[in-house]
Amino acid sequence: MLPNVNMLNSGEGNNVFELTASQLREAEKELGTSEDLQKAVQLVKELQEAKRLYRDVRVFCWVLMYPGAHDTQARHIKATWGKRCNKLVFMSTEDDPSVGAIDVGSLEGYTKLWNKTRSALKYIYKNHLEEFEWFLKADSDTYVLVDNLRYVLQDYDTNEPLYFGQHYKVYGGYNAGGAGHVMGREAVRLFVEKAIPNHQICRPERSKGEDVGMGNCLQRVGVKIGDTRDHLGQGRFWQRHPATVMKDPLGRMKHSRYPVTQGDSPQDCCSSTLISFHKLSVEELYMLDYLIYKVRVFGHIPILPLKAAPPPNLNVVPKKTIEKFREYEDTKLPEYMTETTENDTL
Fold first, then answer.
1. What's the pTM?
2. How many CA atoms within 13 Å lie on the side-chain side of 12?
């Protein structure tokens, strides 16, 4: 028999009802061709897959923070999106165990952010490189859907030189810092071992932001900037506030390496597997957390395929990952499971 629907609605994904493989097969046989009940089985599979990704696609999150903001900003990040990271560390100039802040041995101030960024990555390299697969850097006013990040990254190999975010093509190319960016293990290793020591390719002083410096230095040691759009060309990482994006979806597109989908609705710009928005107040961090993880619309549960489809630009996707995407092509969900309207249920 199918589980009680209340057992599926666990909020944060804790204590989710789990079915064994044999129970899933039995349930699928029992349900026959009923589309709604087939969706219910797929939802159970999705919940179980999300728990597996938390174990297998480990994300280390780090945020640059100054001591005066430990209480006013850091603790609120920790209480909202940051609690979904496998580990969250605030890179500061004072240790503060109450929020998970560490002193990375850098000077403080906006002009010192490039130095602080390099110090933070040296700390990661020395203490956490083998413990995690991916290393997400976010700003203090960024909101990140870490569950969707794992979903998108699951078929990528952290030992390939990769770096993901919202790709801006100006200043030599980089991922915009406010949208957050994520580096694989190999990208961190190359940055610390090859880029930082070589001042010819990675200067210790910067005239532009630390995100520009990161992009320039990484590319000079062979790290590729990935395409983070979904298969429809809709954006996942956003440097701007969600209201600004909805008001002017194509704003700043002249800076972007990749165009995003233009449709009849402002929402057409943004992926259903969104990863980040920027320029948010503390109150808005809580608001997004509430709307995304607490609010349920009765009878409406969109279903996702268990594997993310490839991005439009396969030229920046490693061959091994493309092969995984091709395997996925044979296991796509039927359209009735993935296409929903306002009148759809479950």
1. 0.88
2. 11
